[in-house]
Specification:
Radius of gyration: 17 Å
Shape: globular
Number of strands: 8
Structural class: alpha/beta
Number of domains: 1
CATH superfamily: Vaccinia Virus protein VP39
Helix content: 25-40%
Strand content: 15-25%
Largest sheet: 8 strands, mixed
Distance between the termini: 26 Å
CATH topology: Rossmann fold
CATH architecture: 3-Layer(aba) Sandwich
CATH class: Alpha Beta
Order of helices and strands: HHEHEHEHEHEHHEEE
Length: 239
């Protein structure tokens, strides 16, 4: 197997939160709140019918850094054949247990992307949400995502931008003051700007087709839009 892009310390940090992933008021509360926006963005990025009950029917999907399955489960319910991988075995165990309790068939694996690359796997949809800021050797990791994205397929990513506002919002505000994100979840120095990520994806063989910001405003909550200063979503396709 090629050299892993997993950061063992990061995997251990998030693995310790495994039992709390599905608690909507727990350490993953923020992910629960933005999940509907995530799914809407992915649906639009893949050009699926917003009126369909199962808009992802017929798609094979890989959720990289799946945690305990907060995204993988609704993707499966909406018709995709889902594989979820995570660096933390604790998260995968929690994901398997939750999916089994809900009668969902999802192929969860405690494995790095390199294992699937070595197996020759490809997927119509690859999602990598709030993950790229936690890996070792980002260019190599993006290259693996290219290998895993089928010809004609779609990669959807989200990640924090590296700005003064993201530091104030995510690290000072969310981690240290409001404590809506576990303290230590982010390393601001590993955040990546949209321009940097677009260039690195191009070097890996992708073309970025969309970049959309995720914002929060008092009274309206989370919304997708032009403002990428704190966090953003990105769609890319193999060149």
């Amino acid at each position: 197997m090629t050299t892993t892009t997993i950061d063992a310390a990061e995997a251990g940090f998030f693995g310790a939160l495994a039992d709390d992933w599905w608690n909507p008021a727990g350490s993953s509360a923020m992910l629960h709140r933005i999940n509907p926006l995530r799914l809407r963005y992915i649906r639009d990025a893949t050009g699926r019918d917003p009126r369909a009950r199962r808009p992802f029917a017929g798609l094979t999907a890989l959720d990289v850094g799946c945690g305990a399955g907060l995204l993988a489960e609704p993707l499966a319910r909406m018709g995709a054949a889902v594989t979820g991988i995570d660096a933390a075995p604790e998260n995968v165990a929690a994901a398997k247990a939750h999916a089994a309790a809900g009668g969902l068939s999802i192929a969860y694996r405690a494995a790095p992307v390199e294992v699937l690359v070595d197996e020759g796997s490809t997927f119509d949809l690859v999602t990598c949400l709030e993950v790229v800021e936690h890996v070792v050797d980002r260019p190599a990791f993006l290259g693996h995502l290219w290998t895993l994205t089928a010809s004609g397929g779609t990669l959807v990513m989200s990640t924090p931008n590296r700005t003064a506002l993201s530091y104030a919002t995510l690290i000072v505000g969310a981690e240290r003051i409001a404590r809506t994100i576990p303290r230590g979840a982010h390393d601001w120095a590993k955040f990546v700007t949209p321009d940097e990520l677009t260039a690195e994806l191009a070097a890996a063989g992708f073309v970025v087709t969309d970049t959309t910001g995720l914002t929060w405003r008092p009274g309206t909550g989370f919304a997708l839009g032009r403002d990428t200063l704190v966090n953003y979503y990105l769609t890319a396709v193999p060149a």
